[in-house]
Amino acid sequence: MEHAIETRDLTKRFGDFTAVSGVTLNVQPGEVLVLLGPNGAGKTTTTRMLAAILPPSRGQAMVAGFDAATQASEVRRRVGLLTEHHGLYTRMRAGEYLSFFGSIYGLSETDAGRRAQDLLDQVGMPGIIDRRLGEFSKGMRQKLALVRALLHDPPVLLLDEPTSAMDPASARLVRDSILRLRSSQRTLVVTTHNLAEAEQLADRIAIIRQGSIAALGTVQELKSAHVGPPIMELRAACPLNGAMRVLPGDLQLVARGEDWLRYQAPNPAQANPRVLAAAAAAGLPVVLLTEVGRSLEDVYLRVVGAPAPQGEE
Amino acid sequence: MDATVGPPRGLLPGAWIIARREIRDQLRDWRILVPIILLTVFFPALMNFTAQQAMDFVARYDAPIIAERLVPFLLMIVGFFPISISLVIALESFAGERERLSLEPLLATPLSDAQLYLGKVAASLVPPLGAAYLGIVVYLFGLWRGIGWVAPAPLLVQVLLLTTAQAVVMVSGAVVISSQTTSVRAANLLASFIIVPVSELVIGESMIMFWGRYTVLWFIVAALLLIAAVLTRMGLHLFNREELLGRDLDVLDLRWVWRTLWSAFRGGAHSLGDWYAGVLKRSLPALGPAVLFMVVALTAAYVLGLRVAPIFVLPLDPSNLESLSESVGPQLRELGMMSAQGWWWILRNNVMALVLAALGGVFTFGVAGVILLMAPIGITGYLAGNLALAGQNAGLYLAGLVLPHATLEVPAALLAGAAILRLGLAAVSLPKGTSLGESWLKAVAEWARIGLGLVLPLLIGASLLEVFVTPLIATWVLGG
What we know:
By secondary structure, chain A is of the alpha/beta class. Helices cover 34% and strands 27% of the residues of chain A.
């Protein structure tokens, strides 16, 4: 199989409203794709189409080698979906709940029990099998929902805002569990609003705006494409005075202070040694050379159209 | 692990997984468990006591018939009370699961829509029906032990079927209601659409049982099973993943309502001529099968009227009829014929009758509308039958008093009835990808197109004939 997920012109309309429009993307086996976008951008609808819960109005989604519209049941067997809201039955016990979902996927009670126990160990929740779900904290519930999504060992995992509205500690627990999944060669599609989380988890990021993919690439590719080449900051132990007004080669000075300067470095590996050499030649003791934070937030805000916040200069 | 594992093959094993979990869940909820226990054990015991007391009381006054009717009636009530819980359970199972956002994980599994639907319906039916059957057993056992009364087998079968059919109707109705809401609160508000008709039905059944006309109950059982089948079909259509996840249901979007209605009514026409062409070329042919049904229904009504005439004979005096023939002209004028006022009165009444039939049809899958239109034809047949029994030439009366305006009024009734039937059935036969609301609005628009484009002109013509032409022909045919 070439792609774990392949969509072409994927579109979903509800009456007059177009929720998703012409989404075309490929996700490789083992890759983690993060979908970013404002509320109502179409992330959840895209996820639901990939999970074969909603049929597309136009276009096609192939998931794990099956067409999500015409082979929906086959797709659903091979996809694990973690919904934004855990949707647990709080009167049930954890073991009973997982056994119920195991039986839906055709697992015997023994297999489901063994698998549930392994997964609960993996997400750091051993020994909760007999506890009622109503007693669980939000983080525990979300982790149990993650176990539910993994119970049938799906090759494709779709996680819809897995840490939304969670306290930092719970969110970290869930994020750590997801990070562990990266090593299992499973294809993951994660939707989130949390940019730090996206940067931490993603091989590639797709930014969705008004139902369409507005940007797609690795974090570095997105930064280069949307906020320009990296900007480096050099800080000296003493005032620069008149030194280094002109930088070596074609490097462009973007800002300058009493004891610091910033320059654009399209290729930092080549540019930085030359700048350091020039500083040494000018007799400047360098105390720091670092990349100025061009956050994913800057990229995101540019792509989705919000005004970027003012910089230092 | 094999990634191709899947749910158990077959509709029922998959549905049973869902049903089993929900039934277990219900049995952990004291709010459901306590009423079920009360209605299964204590209520039948109370009814048992009541029946025995009534038997003793009426025996003192030598009126055993009251007790004979009361005991079967209480049997029905003992069965009905527990199944009333099925409505609550069904609303909770469908709307509640949606509200608690626990439905989506289920929708993401390989179970089919039908498996999920049937599983939930079974879960809503099994505990209340089990309680109802158990309650009936407790009641019957008590009566057998107390007064030696044993229920006749046909009555027992009738009550069991009635109980089961009513439960299925309530649950399948609850699914349809739940499909139109995203909260239990809204579903409970809409549940009056089920509670009110079912309550009226139980009152009707009670009256029938007190009158001792148990045969009629078979017809009620058949009608209930038919309604249950219709509602189940609707439920199967409405309970699908797209419908459940794709619509914002609790918001009344009046602009959308108007747009949908107007667009369907206009039918893409840009002028009155265009619109009329659309009515004739698209709307009218679409009515074909429904018109055929109406022809059969109205003919059946006329024949039924004729057949009833010998059973309930009118005391018609031939001499009076002859004097009527002689004074037909003046009498018709007295009734407002040959005047513009009379024309307006007849047109207004006919239009109101059709609007009323349409309203009735909406809530009864078209049935009430059709029955209302059959009624005047049935009455005409009944009168014709009585005239014939009185030795009169019924054909002559019909030709003079009815036929002239019937040439337009009957086609109007056929078209109106057909449109009402389609309107009533719009909710049952939803096109794929169409919501209940959208389908219904389009049916209303189609009904309005037929009503304004064809039925109203026919009614105007018919009332003109009835007021200005029929009296002349009646006078000519019947003399006077």
